[in-house]
Amino acid sequence: MVYADTSVIVALLTVEPSTQKVSDWYAGLGETPVCSDWLLTEFSSALSIKLRTGQISEANAKRVRKEFALVTEGGLRIVPVSREAFRHAAEMNKLHKHGLRAGDSLHLAVALELGASQMATLDGTLAANAKRNGMELIEF
């Protein structure tokens, strides 16, 4: 099972340095990647940041929101975040030297809870922690 974090979906649907590599990966997938429903909030925040900083126009953001709705309705398996995943994420955040922030620890906790074997992320800290927890990394 492949777990994809928000950074990958942002790159899939907006212009980022890794957009082409992520698009190629997504197009070649043989299985539907899994994301937690935290993606819904985090993606919206990322798009708002792009708007505030002038990286994307209102018209483009509207198009991206429509594409995001389509992807989340069929191109991704969205799973709820369990109470146990929140607890596990909190425990991982206590290991401050590992550098995880709240959202990334939540993604990792959900991926581990689901038994995902692979992590697709563009975040170096999340990647290092996923690897530390025995997950194979999807390289972009």
Set down the secondary structure blueprint.
Elements: E1 2-4, H1 6-13, H2 19-27, E2 34-36, H3 38-52, H4 58-75, E3 77-79, H5 83-94, H6 102-114, E4 118-120, H7 124-132, E5 136-138
Parallel strand pairs: 1-4, 2-3, 4-5
Protein described:
With 140 residues, the protein is mainly alpha-helical. It has one domain: 3-Layer(aba) Sandwich (Rossmann fold), CATH 3.40.50. 60% of the residues lie in helices and 11% in strands. It contains seven helices and five strands. The protein has helices at 6-13, 19-27, 38-52, 58-75, 83-94, 102-114, 124-132; strands spanning 2-4, 34-36, 77-79, 118-120, 136-138. The strands form two sheets. The protein has a three-stranded parallel beta sheet with strand order 1-4-5. It has a two-stranded parallel ribbon with strand order 2-3. Helix 7 links the parallel strand 4 (118-120) and strand 5 (136-138). Helix 1 packs across helix 2, helix 1 crosses helix 3 and helix 5 packs across helix 6. The radius of gyration is 15 Å and the shape is globular. It starts with a strand and ends with a strand. The model has no long low-confidence stretch (mean pLDDT 96).
Percentage beta strand: 5-15%
Largest sheet, described in full? 3 strands, parallel
CATH architecture: 3-Layer(aba) Sandwich
Low-confidence stretches: none
The total domain count is 1
Helix and strand string, N-terminal first?
EHHEHHEHHEHE
- CATH top level class name: Alpha Beta
Q: What value does the Rg take, in angstroms?
A: 15 Å
